[in-house]
Amino acid sequence: MQSRDVLEKVKSGELSIDEALAFFKKRSFEEMEFAKPDTQRELRTGFAEVVFCQGKPDEYLVSIYKKMIEETGEVFGTRASEQQYELVKKEIPGITYDPVSKILKYEETGKIRTGNIVVCTAGTADIPVAEEAACTAEFFGSNVNRIFDVGVAGIHRLFSKMDSIQKAYCVVAVAGMEGALASVISGMVSVPVVAVPTSVGYGASFGGLSALLTMINSCANGIATVNIDNGFGAGYIATQINRLACGTER
Amino acid sequence: MQSRDVLEKVKSGELSIDEALAFFKKRSFEEMEFAKPDTQRELRTGFAEVVFCQGKPDEYLVSIYKKMIEETGEVFGTRASEQQYELVKKEIPGITYDPVSKILKYEETGKIRTGNIVVCTAGTADIPVAEEAACTAEFFGSNVNRIFDVGVAGIHRLFSKMDSIQKAYCVVAVAGMEGALASVISGMVSVPVVAVPTSVGYGASFGGLSALLTMINSCANGIATVNIDNGFGAGYIATQINRLACGTER
Amino acid sequence: MQSRDVLEKVKSGELSIDEALAFFKKRSFEEMEFAKPDTQRELRTGFAEVVFCQGKPDEYLVSIYKKMIEETGEVFGTRASEQQYELVKKEIPGITYDPVSKILKYEETGKIRTGNIVVCTAGTADIPVAEEAACTAEFFGSNVNRIFDVGVAGIHRLFSKMDSIQKAYCVVAVAGMEGALASVISGMVSVPVVAVPTSVGYGASFGGLSALLTMINSCANGIATVNIDNGFGAGYIATQINRLACGTER
Amino acid sequence: MQSRDVLEKVKSGELSIDEALAFFKKRSFEEMEFAKPDTQRELRTGFAEVVFCQGKPDEYLVSIYKKMIEETGEVFGTRASEQQYELVKKEIPGITYDPVSKILKYEETGKIRTGNIVVCTAGTADIPVAEEAACTAEFFGSNVNRIFDVGVAGIHRLFSKMDSIQKAYCVVAVAGMEGALASVISGMVSVPVVAVPTSVGYGASFGGLSALLTMINSCANGIATVNIDNGFGAGYIATQINRLACGTER
Amino acid sequence: MQSRDVLEKVKSGELSIDEALAFFKKRSFEEMEFAKPDTQRELRTGFAEVVFCQGKPDEYLVSIYKKMIEETGEVFGTRASEQQYELVKKEIPGITYDPVSKILKYEETGKIRTGNIVVCTAGTADIPVAEEAACTAEFFGSNVNRIFDVGVAGIHRLFSKMDSIQKAYCVVAVAGMEGALASVISGMVSVPVVAVPTSVGYGASFGGLSALLTMINSCANGIATVNIDNGFGAGYIATQINRLACGTER
Amino acid sequence: MQSRDVLEKVKSGELSIDEALAFFKKRSFEEMEFAKPDTQRELRTGFAEVVFCQGKPDEYLVSIYKKMIEETGEVFGTRASEQQYELVKKEIPGITYDPVSKILKYEETGKIRTGNIVVCTAGTADIPVAEEAACTAEFFGSNVNRIFDVGVAGIHRLFSKMDSIQKAYCVVAVAGMEGALASVISGMVSVPVVAVPTSVGYGASFGGLSALLTMINSCANGIATVNIDNGFGAGYIATQINRLACGTER
Amino acid sequence: MQSRDVLEKVKSGELSIDEALAFFKKRSFEEMEFAKPDTQRELRTGFAEVVFCQGKPDEYLVSIYKKMIEETGEVFGTRASEQQYELVKKEIPGITYDPVSKILKYEETGKIRTGNIVVCTAGTADIPVAEEAACTAEFFGSNVNRIFDVGVAGIHRLFSKMDSIQKAYCVVAVAGMEGALASVISGMVSVPVVAVPTSVGYGASFGGLSALLTMINSCANGIATVNIDNGFGAGYIATQINRLACGTER
Amino acid sequence: MQSRDVLEKVKSGELSIDEALAFFKKRSFEEMEFAKPDTQRELRTGFAEVVFCQGKPDEYLVSIYKKMIEETGEVFGTRASEQQYELVKKEIPGITYDPVSKILKYEETGKIRTGNIVVCTAGTADIPVAEEAACTAEFFGSNVNRIFDVGVAGIHRLFSKMDSIQKAYCVVAVAGMEGALASVISGMVSVPVVAVPTSVGYGASFGGLSALLTMINSCANGIATVNIDNGFGAGYIATQINRLACGTER
Q1: Are C245 and D250 a contacting pair at CB < 8 A?
Q2: Is E203 near chain C, with CB under 8 Å?
Q3: Chain G within 8 Å of F174 (Cβ-Cβ)?
Q4: pLDDT > 70: percent of chain G
Q5: How many CB atoms lie within 10 A of CB C110?
Q6: Are the CB atoms for B187 and A176 separated by under 8 Å?
Q7: Closest Cα partner for B62 from B108, B104, B28?
Q8: Which of F50, F223, F245 sits opposite G244 (nearest CB)?
Q9: Best residue in F150, F155, F199 to probe H by mutation, most H CBs within 10 Å?
Q10: Cα–Cα distances in Å, from H66 out to C71, H31, H55, H92, H106?
Q11: Cβ–Cβ of C249/D224 closer than 8 Å?
């Protein structure tokens, strides 16, 4: 429906003014004192808004969690601390916290998962970032297969899992240090590889810059990269791809 | 079929030694003097090997082009110069060259395209990179919708095209300077945005680093980034996503 | 009055030697043991000197605050800690402290504000920097309109406020991560946009460098940028512009 | 006028559909094959669109210049080469070119200039960037006072011009190498200083990065910075400020 | 005396073997378990070895302090903590500690100072680095004139001290943030300016990198730069210059 | 033995299926919940897998240590903290810890060492990294000669040890700050110099980047560089070289 | 023989003065107008001095080549241009030039090569750097096995050559772009891997910085890295290792 | 004489108004169209102004050269090209040009030189920068001793010249690549070392950044650093030191 049609219909009375207003307003949000939660984001992008807990003042965090459960029945927060968990639990007893991924969430039961995303890590120290990716993808409805500690220093470990990896609709490759894992995987699969550099490393790894540059400069094709330690972002885009592959885009 | 099965079958005679060898060899290539063209790459990844023309010595370039046409009936090369076109044309008269995307290719006729990829640019100077992405996606079987010059300095131009953009299975956002285009788009679509920073800019753009950092640090979700000016890489991964969405993965 | 005139008048007796000395001395300061407070700065630039509290030794801080109130009746300090507030309060009971902006000030009552500065943030985490800008502008006599959490990931929130934004004489755009907010705003207003990158972000945001580069490289016009997290500097220059627009330059 | 009002008036017939469409469309542009010239930019921002000539293909450049003169009677382009001048002159004989600022323009006669912008440079090598700023400001209606070669290595030259500098509504400080000029000036004036780092320098100046960092980190207040060598951007924002000061905002 | 001469004299008996050995050995040191204190450094360079206290294990620090007093009657250490002072004081009651410069030393009484070094700072936060420079120069026999808080944001303060500055044999200019002080001073004096960037600043000062680049790229002549926060290094080289000027090189 | 041979022998019964499987599997690892210890690494590379203790969760660390002793009779861990030592000691009383090198190991008695590796440091602050290198080399069977505190500021100390240095099969040069030690040594020996930049330094040393660049850019030949503070990596490769020189490669 | 012994013997007449002088002089060079060729370098390090041709003025180059052949019968120069070859050939007809490695040399016939160095490249564009390494190693007496175009994007090509690679005493891994090749190889061999980053790549490869950081941060052990494009340096250190392994150190 | 005295004397008639004006004006310059030559710089700093020829437009260059000879009888320009020499020679036949240092000058005959500056280089490629330093120092009246090609890869060459080096009042150390020369020298002399990093190098030397960081981070004392390739700056400050040592400061 084009703008002219809307207006024609308003003139003719086919459309009420409120319906037309909704059309032009299109997207909206809820005005709060300190924030503008994008409550209709799910309609627009297919994903509910997510809370980045790190650094949020206590009172803000609790009221946001309460409001989001109230409105959508669920809430999903990343980078939450143990202390934030204790705090929120007092108000929302059913909340759950995973100390590895640092995800603090309240999730409906009986949700169905589809498709197949593989999340790989180069080492064990990359697991927290990988779990953030995996849990994000699962919350948004994807099946996830975790394959950890398959870095290139002992590449036979990776090859022993190649059959599983080749079954995915999307592979998330999580690696710090020199980050070579993504290049090796993407040379062997036909689906997109979402590369996540991590800040694991020391010396000239410069907080993950080394792995980021490696992934951006990959000689292999079919790789795209997200920010350092951004497991959430990788789980999100992997879910978008998985949904497209399953025909469950929305 | 697992390795043990193969061996059981060899023992029992169900499988010939040559069949078994092929199983273990799995992947292969052709040994040349100066290179090892990965002629079975299409079987493995769903994409034929592509030629990066820039800097290739003349005799290498011509012989590679001839061999690839011989073996697959097609050849697709990026970053080719006018001079390289003239050179190859002498040997392969049917070769075609596009001076904007710098793609030098020989393509079968009657190929079918599926799905829907949108390629956007912020400015007109980003078009060469965008065309490399678009032509790559088309060569590998995707429908492409080009929407150019919709940068955020005049954001109404972008919004006027939003309906088209929202119909894509994947959006490729190509931008130099501050590279904000990708963030704005990915806040409005439900599908993955492949961000391509370009080296367009001056001063503190540092050859595209500024746009790269913008895209990697995007506050919006559903973005993953490829290398600066890497239109080919973006067209490749967009095609992978498009194929998954169309169920034509391979 | 030119130098020659001054000297002519000294010779003729029209001007006393002390008046002439004042002319040549022009600008001055007060010599203290550890610092040279620029007590005549208000005459020269239209702004009283401001105290950067962070890292100041306790005894220095208290004596500077006391001296400035004594001389000008007011004092305005940035980046003060809770502890510094407690310390100064003992000596100056009327002092006020805002834990968000971290501003510690003693302000005359009944001051008049003029004009219209809009201060926007991309997210809620950018609010402390924005409040530093807003409070600075207010202290120096500007009306300020705060519009927070209107980042480009949900750009409809920004557009819903565009009417207010377009009424400003100057817009301060505060954003971390990829910092795209300033570009989008400046494409839609006819007044200067002062861009403030913040250190909000993680991974490849490199303490605000990413947002800084974005703002410096903006494809839109009418943007100039201050240092990372420098809310004070933005509020200062916005006030200069606001004063010029109101004809209250000094 | 709010959206609801527009719709009420459409319903009642007070507003034609076309008037309402115009309201909602708000901003527009002209669709060309290779670009979307933002022809209504002057209405929106108070400045006509400007052509960045560098790197534009010949045929594009000429057709853009012709179209813009056709529509607005004027055209203003930056970073034009001698060759581009020769090319455009064939089609538009009245075009003028300044080899220092590299500005290629067609300007109406009898335009009135208002206000007072001072453009300073540290050295003679910074003059091309300064001229780009000055000519931009003049084209858009500002009076400009040029004060060149007053860098801090011989600071008495700067002080001899301080009276003129202090009369400006806005000062543009253009400097390469260590870029200290902006700090010194802004300590002495009550109006905004727009700092322009230049790529003049060698060794560790890293193409202007050194001057950029100096200006961003200035210990003085009332400075905001634009991109390296971005004289146009400085002239643009200085004009915005000058217009506000003169009450000729639009 | 050349090597051949030495050998001729050994042969002839003019020189004892031990004297000849000393000739060839030339320079020496004392072997300890964990270090090789360069006890003859004063003979070679005119300066006794100095202790960098920061990070030294407690037992090492005490034994080095004791050994050096034993051998030379003095000891001079930089970057000492309050705790290290308490520790050393137990063994060496006469030791003195300055909490601003963080210098922990035992110095002979009645030492004579010569010449004239001026140490300037841009702000009060630069004073600790400046004091390290000043105390170093004094320990090694230079007269020092401290002129603090004369940064370019209020440049009249600097000019009011210019007479004193112009009397120095060497000026040490200590500044953080944008570090412009060194350039301004060196344009006004005929003697070397040793520039010391400090880590004072925030945002894009990157721990002093901004000030370092400013000083290295200075448009003024007669500046050379030492490491960020390296007050000791500046005091050392200023002393070398001061000694040369006084004819007291050694 | 080629693949075909293996298969021929399986067919003929000369080789059991399990033997053949082992051939194709070639390399292997042990699947654990959180990691894939590469237990056959010694067979493949001649070095048992080493534990990077830093950041390992307590329960993981203890179980890994126990499993490795169980399987190989030894375990060698780097970057262990005092606390980790206390923890592991409770389960494995015979474990030993060196607070300088931070190595936590259980080593068989009576191991033989061969060859000659020299480990040099520029200063005493570089000793922890050097000890990590030396202890690694000793654990893997190399004789090590430690020569510490021979930096270029007092180069006679280095020359006094040159005879010892020239006897090595490989020299490890450990230096922070400007890292010049490696260049000087490699100009004087005929064997490889493994350069280890350290994070010792301040200001513009940028956490070891300065020393790393120095070593990578060395004008001398026969230098190769490992990561900043990577004593382990240097000790490892020095052992590889030492083994080759002794004919004890494996 | 210690210094004292030498002197004792001079005294006793056992040693002539000239012999003693030679002892103390130890190492020497030849004084020329513009250079100090290190003609005794072969005695000291086991390698004759090599000429870095790039940028050498014509007359210097020719006279150096002539002098070195005169003195040692051989000369070996790197980074020579076609033009330099033509120039030198006029004076030294027997000189040979390889346009791939850019090596310009005069070599004795019948030299024997020992040992086994493998030189691998990731792509064909890395071959010039690899050839510089290989030719250097061959000139200094090593057998070299070239294995090119085995990058990780098609890792089966690398594995098909693993048997050859595992036979080397030292592997040189040459790679640009993301440089992952070195990590993969060093996980599979027991000998040192000398990693050579190349400037092959584009965008965020930053002239080889990306590959350099990858190699420095490798998660695998037994890697040390030389400068970007420094094939010569890699060939040199590989030869040192090969000599040690063959017992032909000198 | 203080300002008050001047004024008292004006009042009493002791001082004419013009004399007083001169006092307050103090420093001056000559206003030209495109520049403000600092013609009294010699009075202020002891050095006449120098022309940075690189990039100067032809007509400017010639008129500046003519004006400076006219006023001071001499002119000294750096970074002049062969073409600029030809150009200037037409107008000023007595001009001389040195293609190595790229200095274009007209110098009075019979000037006296004093003192002793040593200028060292690491390699022959550093000579142009060293010559710029040496010629600058000579033009301003210093004796210079050139010692070239004494880099640390063959450190015996440096030691053979140590006697000469130790006789200097100031040493200029010029080095590219890893720039270790300055550290080694300053450990052996008692006078200041002015370090000049050069852009000589390749790969990770990043245009001289590597050498700059080395020199700034030197573990030795008595080093201060100028910009990359800034031979002029080094010669200038070395002359300042040399003059102080000779008592010929001005």
Answers
A1: no
A2: yes
A3: no
A4: 87
A5: 4
A6: no
A7: B104
A8: F245
A9: F155
A10: 56, 16, 18, 8, 10
A11: no
CATH architecture observed for domain E114-246: 3-Layer(aba) Sandwich (3.40)
Q: Are F246 and F114 in contact (CB under 8 A)?
A: yes
Spatial distance between the Cα atoms of A172 and A196, rounded to a whole number of angstroms: 7
Give the mean model confidence (pLDDT) for residues F160-183: 93
Chains contacting chain E through 3 or more C-beta pairs under 8 A: C, D, F, G, H
Q: Kindly report which listed range (B30-44, C220-234, G42-56) carries the lowest average pLDDT score.
A: B30-44
Residue E111, C-beta contacts closer than 8 angstroms, at least 6 positions apart: E141
H124 — contact with chain F (CB < 8 Å)?
A: no
pLDDT of residue E60: 84
Q: What secondary structure letter does DSSP report for G92?
A: -
Dist. CA B161–CA B32, nearest whole Å: 49
E45:H187 CB<8 A: yes
Tokens of E55: 């990070």
| pLDDT tens sequence across G111-170 | 999 999 999 999 989 999 999 999 999 999 999 999 999 998 888 889 889 889 999 999
Tell me, yes or no, if H150 comes closer than 8 A to chain G by beta carbon: yes
* Distance in angstroms between the alpha carbons of the first and the last residue of chain D: 20
User: Is the Cβ pair E149, C34 closer than 8 Å?
Assistant: yes
3-state secondary structure at position D31: coil
Q: What is the mean pLDDT of chain E?
A: 87
Nearest by CB: F229 against A153, A154, A203: A203
Interface residue B24 vs chain F (CB under 8 A): yes
Give yes or no for a contact between E243 and E109, defined as CB atoms under 8 angstroms apart: no
Assess whether pLDDT exceeds 50 at residue D36.
yes
What count of CB pairs under 8 Å joins C to D?
112
Query: Is pLDDT at F43 greater than 70 in this prediction?
Result: no
* Neighboring chain H residues of E46 at a CB cutoff of 8 Å: 190
Rounded CA-CA distance E146/E149 in Å is 10
Cβ(H214)–Cβ(F214) under 8 Å? yes
- Tens of pLDDT, residue by residue over C195-244, are 999 999 999 999 999 999 999 999 889 999 999 999 999 999 999 999 99
Q: Which residues of F touch A203 (CB under 8 A)?
A: 197, 199, 207-208, 212, 227-230
- What pLDDT, in 10s, does the model give residues H106-119? 999 889 999 999 99
Task: Report yes or no: C108 and C75 within 8 Å, Cβ to Cβ.
Answer: no
Count of A–C CB contacts within 8 Å? Answer: 47
- Greater confidence (B118 vs E22) lies with B118
Output the average pLDDT for chain G: 87
Sequential DSSP letters for E121-169: ESSGGGHHHHHHHHHHHHHTTEEEEEE-S--GGGTHHHHTTHHHHTT-S
Report residue E5's pLDDT band, with 50, 70 and 90 as the boundaries. low
Domain locations in chain G as residue ranges: 3-106, 114-246
Using alpha carbons, list the distances in angstroms from residue A78 to A100, A139, D13, F55. Answer: 11, 12, 52, 21
ipTM of the assembly? Answer: 0.85
pLDDT digits (tens, 9 = 90+) for D93-103: 999 999 999 99
Tokens 């501050």, located at residue: B178
